[in-house]
Amino acid sequence: MRSLSASALALGAKGAALTVALALAFAFLPVVSLAVVPFLPLPTAYVCLRQGGMAAAISAVAASLMAGIISGVGSGLFTFALAVLAGVALGLALRRNRGFSGVLLATAVATAAGLVLWVGGVWVVTGMTVEQFGALMDTSFQAVAQMYAGMNMDAEAVAQAEEGARSMLAMLPYLAPGIVASVGVALAALTLALASLLFPRLGHATTPALSFHEFRLHWATPYGFILGLLLILMAGWWPHGGEAARLAGINLVLFFATLFFVQGFAVARWFMLKRGVKGGAAVAFYGAALLGQVFFQLLSWVGVVDCWLDFRKRMTPKLV
């Protein structure tokens, strides 16, 4: 094992300090905790990009230990998941210039694995059993129902809402693969977008791997999305295994819809760059695109169709 240089140690110490600060903000500032999450892998990724994987791993492990000591085991595990796993994966992929798709995949896999490790670690540390978790949820549902009843809301509507919430909670274990994979992709995309904005300002030139507007999935990827839809639609026709097919279809749709949302947003980003739209018009355009995604899955469908039609290639001659 080669020794680290003084510059690597100095940069690693700065990265560890910044990671600890972000971890403490996540643990103690609920207002900004969610906004902090995509930033957590960045200090480690930057150290890795500049000084290599060893310096980055040591920096991230030290930060995780300090975060765990100051703010608890849960925070330390979360920092380990995003700094050590996702941060090092992102830094190595950028260092090897894998291209946006390769960097996104590596970061998404590491992020998803880190989230599973975090949830599993917290579960083991707390020692909570399935029965205890169920009792905790029952208590929570009853407290919420009593609160709404105290607000003179219709008892039947409250009961229906509680039943719906219980049904969703019962499905969560079966949808966990799709949810974890989707969150991994979404967090990886956000982290990459932040890296493309921040790393050039820190003296590291933008690499092709950070060219988000050029991101495009393989043309065969939509078939995974279509398979998920078919499983959901045809589940009722199967007397045995229909529910399993439906749940598998929902998992596939969750994952691929998130992937195609990223590609659809890349198409929107490319269009904005080519048209030179900036300022308030850009904010309005992105806001409309996100609203279209929320209500109509607009960007996901743009991503699906773009895999086959390649809007950017077809429109380039018209915009030059």
Strand-helix topology:
Layout: H1 6-28, H2 33-36, H3 42-51, H4 53-71, H5 73-95, H6 99-126, H7 130-150, H8 155-198, H9 222-234, H10 242-275, H11 279-296, H12 298-309, H13 311-319
Helix pairs in contact: 1-3, 1-4, 1-5, 3-4, 3-5, 4-5, 5-6, 6-8, 7-8, 8-10, 9-10, 10-11, 10-12
Structure description:
This protein is globular. α4 (53-71) runs antiparallel to α5 and α10 (242-275) runs antiparallel to α11. The mean pLDDT is 85. The chain starts with 5 loop residues before the first helix and ends with a helix. It has helices at 6-28, 33-36, 42-51, 53-71, 73-95, 99-126, 130-150, 155-198, 222-234, 242-275, 279-296, 298-309, 311-319. Helix content is 81%, strand content 0%. The chain has 2 domains: 1-127 and 176-210; 218-320, no CATH class. It is an all-alpha fold and 320 residues long.
Q: What is the alpha-carbon Rg in Å?
A: 22 Å
Shape: globular
Detail the poorly predicted runs: none
Give helix % range: over 70%
Give the beta-strand count.
0
The computed structural class is: mainly alpha
Could you list some keywords that capture this structure?
mainly alpha, 2 domains, 320 residues
Q: Could you give a short description of this structure?
A:
With 320 residues, this protein is an all-alpha fold. The protein is 81% helix and 0% strand.
